[in-house]
## 1
Amino acid sequence: MKGLQSDILIAMGAGAGTRPVESAVSADDSPVKNGRRLQHAEGASRPLHSTTAREPQPRGARIRGNHRVDQTEAAARFIAAPQHEKMHDDRLWDLRTKRDGQMHAIPEWEELRALASAIKEHTLTHLDQYLDEFEQNARANGVHVHWAMDGDEHNQIVHGILRDHGAKTLIKSKSMLTEECGFRSYMARVGIEVIETDLGERIQQLDNEDPSHVVVPAVHKLRGDVAELFATHLGTDPADDNVHHLAEAQRQATRPLILDADAGMTGCNFAIAETGGITVCTNEGNADLSANVPKLHIASVGIEKVIPRLEHLAVFIRLLSRSALGSPITQYTSHIRGPRDGGEMHVVLVDNGRSARLALEKFWTSLKCIRCGACMNTCPVYRRSGGLSYGATYSGPIGLIIDPTFNRHKYSSLPFSSSLNGSCSNVCPVKINIHEQISAWRQVMAENHELTFVKKAAMKAAGVLLAHPALYRVAIATADSALNGLPRFAIYSRLNAWGKHREVPHAPRESFHSWYKRNRSAS
Ligand code: SF4
């Protein structure tokens, strides 16, 4: 699903229309209508007020070429910014709670998940067939279809189309695929101005940051961060962090750019083989503007987005927004089958590593992902460390299993940024066994010598101990008494990330094994 900036969008009411927000504003700034606070996801999200001085926004992971990303270092900086950390944790848990409410309201929820999973697995195992069918039907609808092997080819194809039309400005709705492809920076290099139309994504573009979440791209920002950003770029008052004012300022600034743009670009949530149409889900209606205002529309579509038939779409539409934001449906679910009157439409089908992922026995089902973000919202590590700490296009649990397929070394530490509690797998609407895949990636990293020195030494020692039960028992007995007398620097040091945010519990006087032997084994 394409973006919703959680804090700011409270002000957007029913999407990005041209009229000002009509609903009244309550004392706590939440939109109310006829005396009742709005109940859909945006209206019901609690605005967050800060009574203390503004805290500088923590930035994401430090990227150094192909070097291994240090997520724990960036996470530690995020945790050290308590206003941001608390807001992020609260906001995403709020979404998770709403998702649970929606789930409990649908008795057939588990059947829907099973069906969605089965449809995706069937499609992925017949992908060539359904992609061919989609291409044929899209062409019959008057759409130009292109194939891109990787991000570079995608960017070149889009650039070629724009060049042929003399286009210099492009309005664009949110697309994680274009983030994968490094699309904006490519377009900047060739002199084409790209304007993001999703509110959260536009905030991130103005701040020169990547999206930190697949659905709510600027969810890591406090309203004060946005006020300062808009003051710099839009000339607003930096002291005014009223979300309604900020959203309106952004709307007024972007609307003329949208009306004047030479071309429009959208992503795609689902590509339907049977009809050759695409479906895009947004909460702001910005994809409709991008697809319909300029005469030229280009849609970037990952090849895993195809589903066989229109009837299958209903299964995913029922799951998507409920899982993502805890709202029954996105404000806009737009079906686009061909070019607008007098216009031209292109679809670029992009592989960018997906075929290779399909061949990975333990990881191919990650291609079932519909980018709802539910696994991120529920993940305790993600909620407390912020999406940009992962230093990759995808963050949170889904990122841990996708990112290493793009660059195994660079993202080799990410599968360790999980407590393996399994909550991600439980909420996933397409039943991806996320935590098992995270665990499997850890094994792959170990086999490929991608562990850090400290982790490798610890794993080796643990391996020896666990392989020798007698030695293990002696070690445990010794460790228990040793832990009680160990100097603090031995555990709480720079070398031991475990000790950074934890206290070692008091060791019991006796192990369960020896207690059992003494009390029960004789009976
Ligand atoms: S892995 Fe599942 S829960 Fe996570 S974003 Fe994808 S579909 Fe949603």
## 2
Amino acid sequence: MVGTITLNSHCPSDPTAPVDASFLPGPVLLLGAPGVGKGTQAQLLVTKYGIPQISTGDLLRANKARGTELGLKAQAIMSSGQLVPDAIVNEMVLERLREKDVQRGYILDGYPRTLDQADFLDETIADPAFLPRLPVIAISIVAAYDQLLQRITGRRICATCKSIYNVYTNPPKVDGVCDCEGAPLSQRSDDTEPVFIERMKTFEEQTAPVIAHYRALGRFEEADGNQGVEAVNAAVETALFHLRNGRSG
Ligand SMILES: [Zn+2]
């Protein structure tokens, strides 16, 4: 049975919402360009299926905060201005995948980012000790360049109540002023076209080989991100069911 989720962008997800236990989502790599709403979509899947989101950023922060050996190594490398090598990231993910809450699946965010990481993950979870015994599937939320650009450059934020507006799609009643308490709206310094172009370039360069990897294995689908949150959610779920049900055995 496929349940529906009530969405209200102004309210946090209901933590008491029933978890859909009738479908085993397994490991899902969610991909999406800046501004595509990947975080929102990941959160919807997390809530619906009661599975965790595993992000390398969160893992790095958690390991640093706990002062683990991996965290200290990563910190030393990052403070010298270098990227944390695959071996350390892989090890952090491996530890995370040994925890109990991943047994029905998990949403991967920002990992695997390289072919080496993708190979490592595929080999790791092929070991029957890792639950659920399902391969990684990848879903990319795609939207038109101009729409993404508008979502980023049109974004305005109220520093007082944290409301988020968009001058193109969700403008305040009075230009430049928050509807809630009348505070002035501001634009984040990196919500500009040059920064967006740079981030898109990086995103495309980084994800192309990972997408090619999963596509070649028949474990990749795109979801149309040129629509509202609920419709994108439906498209992501369609891709998810298709990729899982198409799998034999
Ligand atoms: Zn406000």
